Amino acid sequence: MCERPSRVSLFWGSLVGGGIEHVMVALAQGFLNRGIDTDIVLLKKKGELLGSLPSDCRVFNLRANGLVESVPSLATYLRHHHTSVLLSAAPYPNRVALLAKVITGGFTPIVISEHNVSPIAGSRSMLPDWGLTHITKATYLLADRAVAVSEGVADRVSERLHMRREKFDVVYNPVVSMETLGHANRDVEHSWFQNSGTPVVLGVGRLVEEKGFSVLLEAFAKVRKSRRARLVIFGEGSERRALEQQAEHLGVSDQVWMPGFVSNPLKYMSKASVFVLSSKSEGLGNVLIEAMSCGTPVVSTDCPSGPAEILEGGKHGKLVPVEDPSALAMGVEEALDGKIDPAPRSALNRFQRDRVTEQYLDILSSVT
Length: 368
What we know:
Blueprint (H helix, E strand, L loop, with lengths): L6 E6 L6 H15 L3 E6 L15 E4 L4 H15 L4 E5 L1 H13 L6 E5 L14 H12 L4 E4 L2 H11 L6 E3 L7 H7 L15 E5 L8 H12 L5 E5 L5 H11 L5 E5 L5 H4 L4 E4 L8 H8 L4 E4 L5 H4 L7 E3 L4 H12 L16 H13 L3
Parallel strand pairs: 1-2, 1-4, 2-3, 4-5, 5-6, 6-7, 8-9, 8-11, 9-10, 11-12, 12-13
């Protein structure tokens, strides 16, 4: 067995409340719980999860914009803070980490993790896609190990970059823990969740086009034609105004609540009638796993690439086509009619925090 690293550095962009950020914070806590010194290195120390950082880790704020600033800033960190291994997350931080490895002489092992179906997802580069893809492949080949959060991500990224599929280890996200169950059991004050007799449909995610909330609103409006129901969407983003206008246009705004980011969506998930993931694409789909862990029936689009893996082809929830409001509405109605069972606890073993932390540690240990 390889010796465990004495210090691990986790590197990503910021602390906005997305799936990657939750995963990395969970891993940091898992490493610390095992007595491993842990650094969190951020391009920008900002976002809703600032208060969620473990108190006994070191946090470094690079305050960097663009490769010209980010790469030398991370290289400076690597030269002055002797870490056993660095784990990065998401395409841009992965590229930064691997370029920093080059200019520091490659002494620090770098493990990259890919959470998106596109290896250039979210990039604001002025380069055309083909140029950015070429640079991404050139840098990814420098990684000591590479992790993908689902089989689908591994398949698509390796195909897009023309890399060997075997380059990627698949490790699911560390979503489920005893802490998760504690969060789910908290009280909810909002009257819609207090046995009002009207079922609540719940969605959670950034208010961006990729999450498909416009399709969810259309589906909800169809559901409302035949029965009472309410829709709650947690999250914030650039599509807020458009979604509010759409709800008004559909005549359902009085039955839709979009309060923005909430620190504990699980307590609402556990009391919702059905959880809906309406995304056009997902690396994995942490919120779907969270809803399953709360014992809530789930309906999800069969988008690339995580939901079908999470639900094992529909064994543990309903899968519907992407961008199909009618099919999504029918799935919601099935759930409200009690025709979709909650997932069994055994379906969540793959996402247990302790299990996933150990899988990551085995990979990190192999390169130190």
